[in-house]
Amino acid sequence: MHCSPLVTLLTLVILVEPLFAYQTIAHRGIFHDVKDHNALAENSVNAMYRAEALGLPGVEFDLRLSSDNQVLVFHDMISNRATSTDNYGGRLDAVDVSLNLQPPVAPILVKSRPANSWIGTGLKAFGRNGRIVPADGAHKLETLDSMLSHFKNLNNPNFWLILDIQDPFIFSRAAAAVNAHGLSRTVFLKFFATKAINSKGIKYNGANTCYQYARKNHLSDLQIIPQINDGELHFEGEIAYLNVFNTKLSVREYLQCWADAQKAHSGNGAALMPIVSASVPANNEVAFNTARDTLAWAKSAGRKTMSILPNPDAGRIINTQCTLWTYQSGSVKAARFDESARKAKLAFVEIAKPDYVVLDLMGDLGNRRWIGDFSSYIIYLC
């Protein structure tokens, strides 16, 4: 039986972590800890501060909009799982809901309420077995503006804040906020290549399109990271392309647009593209090859490269076995962790060798260290 190179590579890396050196970016900060009493909330000021204190080069945080179009530092589309505003007295546990130990309460959309109803809302911290750790009142939901102020207070030029962006309005508002705080050197805007772009009314004209888009959306002289995701790719046989700027572009053509705009207008309104990011799904060889080609292009163009390697959000001992779970952005239920998806992403990291990997980490505050490898990480989830 013939096996494709992708299948062969997946087989080889099932139990092996990458053997090469990459720099680790803490996904949502360092908030897990081997000791429950040291657990923090994700996407929180303290999770950012802990990552910096433990020597990480940076964190990646998520952004959402309130009903009055204020940008909030938050991952989920709904508030139930991660905040005390959960329709269950602040006690809702997504794993318990999945196991029918708690009711599937009505979800609360973040975008359904104005910012002033979210500012200062308590964020949940989780310990072993996915259990909520009693709050001390220190973990609060932040606006992007307040988070940037806290980040600026670190005054560490070697520590990055990477903002993960999936919406055109958030992209523009976040860029304006970064400019207002004077953080263009240490804050990066990582954006979905098509979902975060408002293509309405644009007629594609090569590099000038990316140049004008940067000028009109406050991206001038800011550092951007295009993120190539399989969910945004369209396929024609073995060929993948993006529908963006009202044009069908190959990934290389799309990235070249930003690169050529920077080359022609650097220091005069162009966005800067120091890093390119790509990730892969399970069981899609065309998407895998496209992502690999994306990072190969980036390296040939003098850019750094980035990818994503997820770890489970929670564990729960069931019948003496540690089961692994993922929290869902739009559901009050957790889902079983997709190990096949992680294996595909690990295979990609092995072969593409990115400079940076965004990774879920386990803190060990007592020993002033962090843990990223899968086998050690999951030991402390249950």
Can you walk me through this structure?
Helix 9 (285-300) links the parallel strand 14 (275-278) and strand 15 (304-309). The chain has an eight-stranded parallel β-barrel with strand order 1-3-8-9-10-14-15-19, surrounded by four helices. Strands 2-20-21 form a three-stranded mixed beta sheet, with no helix packed on it. The chain is built from eleven helices and 21 strands. It has one domain: TIM Barrel (Alpha-Beta Barrel). Helices cover 29% and strands 23% of the residues. The protein has 382 residues and is α/β, with parallel strands linked by helices. The model is unreliable at 1-18 (pLDDT under 50). The protein starts with a helix and ends with a helix. Helix 1 (5-12) crosses helix 10.
Notable characteristics:
disordered N terminus; 21 strands; single chain; TIM Barrel; phosphoric diester hydrolase activity
How many domains make up the coordinates?
A: 1
The CATH superfamily turns out to be: Phosphatidylinositol (PI) phosphodiesterase
Number of distinct beta strands: 21
Helix content percent band: 25-40%
Low-confidence residue ranges? 1-18
CATH class: Alpha Beta
N-end to C-end Cα span: 39 Å
Q: Brief description of this entry?
A:
The protein has 382 residues and is an alpha/beta fold. The protein has 11 helices and 21 strands. It has an 8-stranded parallel barrel with strand order 1-3-8-9-10-14-15-19, surrounded by 4 helices. It has a 3-stranded mixed β-sheet with strand order 2-20-21, with no helix packed on it.
